[in-house]
Write a structure and sequence with these properties.
Elements lengths: L4 E6 L19 E2 L2 E2 H11 L4 E6 L3 H10 L5 E6 L8 H7 L1 H4 L3 E5 L2 E3 L2 H8 L5 E5 L10 E4 L5 E5 L9 E9 L1 H16 L7 H7 L1 H4 L2 E4 L5 E3 L3 H18 L1
Parallel strand pairs: 1-4, 1-6, 4-5, 8-12
Antiparallel strand pairs: 2-3, 6-11, 7-13, 8-11, 9-10, 9-11
Helix pairs in contact: 3-6, 3-7, 6-7
């Protein structure tokens, strides 16, 4: 069986990063000579994924040029979201509905992570799987996760009580075809009601009862999301550790 296509959501403006993203998308933030996009694509290829579709928006041509000029070890294409400046990534998610409905691996573009996490994602079987960090303390900003007694996802939302949450969703999900269609239907209902300012995680949250998603733990492997200057500095530190580990 061939591997599912990887979808990388890279359309956002990244306003909180100021000068870092004034003329570049967050996906092209450079950490020690490698961009976030390069790190994600090479990690996907190393884990056995063969195709990637990058949803672009802000400074889209910069990603188009890189994808056209370089070989990352897998087939890569871009898909432009014309509403990137007025809507959140729930609309980017719907921009690649034809890919998601076949089953896919979905990645946020603003994360740096241990590539071995994607090996676990590649090994996941039928169903929907979210990668979750259960090791770090939770606060207000984290995309928190709760589960039922059998370990299946019940909620994923920033507003959840940290004390009742089992961890933080790190921005990587694997959907099979059935799960992809369930989440797309959820996203369409939200967008059709005018809620274009939401994250795709809101669609997962609203559909959690039908998805029956399970968790893939990070198991203390390094990762971080890059939203602001402190995140960027942490990303530099963690990227250096990951690069040293890979040597």
């Amino acid at each position: 069986m061939s591997s599912p296509t990887a979808v990388i959501l890279a359309a956002g403006l990244g306003r909180r990063l100021g000068e870092y993203t004034a003329a570049l998308p967050k996906a092209l933030i450079n950490l020690h000579g490698k961009t976030l996009l390069e790190r994600s694509l090479t990690a996907l290829a190393a884990a056995g994924f063969q195709r990637a579709c990058i949803v672009t928006g802000h400074c889209a041509v910069s990603i188009d040029e890189i994808i056209g000029a370089r070989n990352f070890g897998l087939e890569a294409v871009t898909r432009f979201n014309p509403d990137y400046a007025t809507a959140n990534n729930i609309v980017s998610f719907l921009t690649v509905a034809d890919v998601v409905e076949q089953g896919c691996v979905l990645l946020n573009s603003d994360i740096v992570f241990d590539p071995s996490i994607l090996v676990d994602v590649a090994a996941a079987q039928t169903g929907t799987w979210l990668v979750v960090d259960s090791d770090e303390p939770l606060g207000h900003e984290e995309m928190k996760v709760t589960v039922d007694g059998e370990g299946r996802l019940t909620r994923v939302n920033k507003q959840l009580d940290p004390a009742r949450s089992v961890g933080e969703y790190i921005g990587i999900t694997r959907f099979d075809a059935a799960g992809g269609r369930i989440c797309l239907d959820s996203a369409r209902r939200l967008v059709d009601s005018g809620q274009v300012d939401l994250y795709y995680e809101h669609a997962i949250d609203a559909a959690a009862g039908d998805l029956g998603a399970r968790l893939i733990p990070t198991r203390r492997r390094l990762w971080t999301e890059i939203d602001d200057e402190p995140d960027y500095q942490r990303g530099l530190r963690e990227a250096a550790q990951l690069d040293a580990k890979a040597q």
